[in-house]
Amino acid sequence: MENLNLPPYDYKLRKVDEKIYIYDILRRKYIVLTPEEWVRQHFVHFLINQHQYPKSLIKLESSLKYNTLLKRTDIQVYGRDGKLMMIVECKAPYIKLTQNVFSQAAEYNQVLKAEYLTITNGMVYHCCKTNWENMHLEFLKDLPLFV
What we know:
Domain Type I restriction enzyme R protein N-terminal: 35-144
Protein name: Type I restriction enzyme HsdR N-terminal domain-containing protein
Strand order of the largest sheet: 4-5-6-7-8-9
Organism: Arcicella lustrica
Radius of gyration: 15 Å
Number of strands: 9
Shape: globular
Distance between the termini: 33 Å
């Protein structure tokens, strides 16, 4: 897998029937290692280790209904009050973070109404704060502090 622009961590890999799996500390099991999963696992550790987001308030691959389609978010982060605080859309490192990627995440957030929306490909990440009252997005320099 490609080196990412996120802090390294001690990941665990396992090979079964020619497939490589990575251990997911949140789901507590091995997951097939894809480029997107590589980014997702690194970003989860980044949230926990560098930004002190509690593991217990992070959920992976949650389903949502968008119009008539069943979709899923990569990472959801909840606040201490139990409300959804942030969604994170992860892409493989070779995927450019274009307007289309941002629009996909924003469409999901129209349903979920998280205050923060983040997109990442492991090389860069962009986070914005949503003001739902006036439908305004403010791009942030970094992730919000967990309080």
